[in-house]
Specification:
heterodimer; A: mainly alpha; about 70% helix; B: mainly alpha; 7 helices; about 0% strand
Chain lengths: ~200, ~170
């Protein structure tokens, strides 16, 4: 059987909920292990004191990207059946800017705020509550935002289509850029004053 | 028990990447976090005011066909995130009731910034259709153009805004 397994009917909808729990536990485990449940550590990214966020995030992205590429190449994963987030150019640009501002102000992102809250950090609980309020409020105003929300749709639109290069070359270049980025990150950290202090 | 130091970021990153890859292979979808908040918000509105929830084109997609709350994959996944984070911190001696902040800000000011920043992030996550998990990690690994726009915009804005809230940390 070729992966992904769920839409091949390998297991039921009910079982997929169990899969969600197991995958979530593993996700939370690695976030906590790397220190991404700590707002102090995350904020260090934005003052160039501690670049753990960059290192963890880009290592994860290139690991999964290489996995998808090679599993697809070996024919064990049908890449076309993986759901790729669709592109909406302007809403995602504006949403990204607003999101980044909130990230810098709160010191945590949605997933890491849940880890912070689960490990006893009250500021994490506060971010979770704020995030809920923000999503609720925006959702309630949706009828006024709908025109903007649905503007500039591009459907499933990948960098290989945009740049008109083969997936293999793009993956290779992204890995090289990430490795160079890690080298720069290590240099910045060795010159910095250390993690943001308490 | 004293707290153990955090893992090597590259090792933890590979672990995180393999979790994301497992989600692609097993489920044909990636990870997420903000979608679970949207589900929870939709369920709240559906409970408090069922008619306005099903009339709302944003919330209705997170509800069942009859307009009632349903068990969402991302909500269960995010509950898992909290369990996994808790167990990891517990085993490493890192469970601690505290408010993380810098030396020049009060606890209450830090909590207000946390709430306000969280609310701003919520607005952004709705517009961008995801957050650091659903867009940056998942869409980033799948080479989605919109996701890479999100990554650039989010980190760019964070570096512009961070000096304004420097007092909270340094």
């Amino acid at each position: 059987m070729i992966a992904p397994f769920f839409d091949s009917g390998a297991f039921s909808e009910t079982a997929s909920i169990g899969v969600a729990l197991v995958i979530g536990i593993a996700f939370g485990w690695f976030l906590e292990r790397s220190g991404m449940g700590s707002a102090r550590k995350l904020a260090g990214q934005f003052y160039l004191r501690d670049l753990t966020v960059f290192k963890v995030m880009f290592t994860a992205i290139i690991t999964a990207m290489l996995g998808v590429f090679w599993l697809g190449r070996f024919g064990v994963l049908d890449v076309d059946r993986i759901f790729v987030p669709e592109t909406w150019l302007v809403p995602q640009l504006v949403g990204g800017l607003v999101f980044g501002a909130g990230f810098a102000i709160s010191g945590l992102c949605p997933g890491t705020s849940c880890v912070a809250a689960a490990t006893g950090r009250i500021d994490g609980v506060s971010v979770v509550a704020g995030m809920f309020a923000g999503v609720l409020g925006t959702g309630l105003l949706y009828s006024k935002l709908q025109g903007f929300y649905l503007s500039t749709p591009r459907g499933t639109y990948t960098l290989t289509q945009l740049l008109n290069v083969s997936q293999g070359i793009l993956v290779f270049v992204i890995v090289l850029v990430a490795l160079a980025g890690f080298k720069v990150a290590d240099m910045i950290e060795s010159r910095a004053a250390g993690p943001v202090s308490q | 028990m004293s707290a153990k130091p955090y893992s090597n970021p590259y090792l933890a990153g590979v672990g995180l990447g393999l979790v994301l890859l497992s989600a692609f292979v097993i489920m044909g979808r990636g990870l997420g976090a903000s979608g679970a908040f949207a589900s929870a918000a939709a369920a709240t509105v559906a409970t408090a005011a069922p008619e306005s929830a099903s009339a709302n084109d944003y919330f209705s997609r997170y509800l069942s066909a009859s307009g009632s709350p349903r068990i969402d994959w991302l909500v269960v996944e995010l509950i898992g995130v909290m369990v996994g984070g808790f167990v990891s911190a517990w085993l490493a001696g890192r469970l601690r009731r505290e408010i993380e902040r810098g030396p020049r800000i009060s606890n209450s000011a830090r909590l207000r910034l946390a709430f306000g920043g969280g609310a701003v992030m919520g607005v952004g996550a709705v517009l961008a259709r995801g957050c650091t998990s659903g867009q940056a990690l998942t869409g980033g690994a799948l080479l989605s153009v919109g996701s890479w726009i999100f990554i650039g915009a989010a980190f760019g804005a964070a570096y512009v805004v961070a000096p304004l809230v420097r007092r909270a940390w340094i």
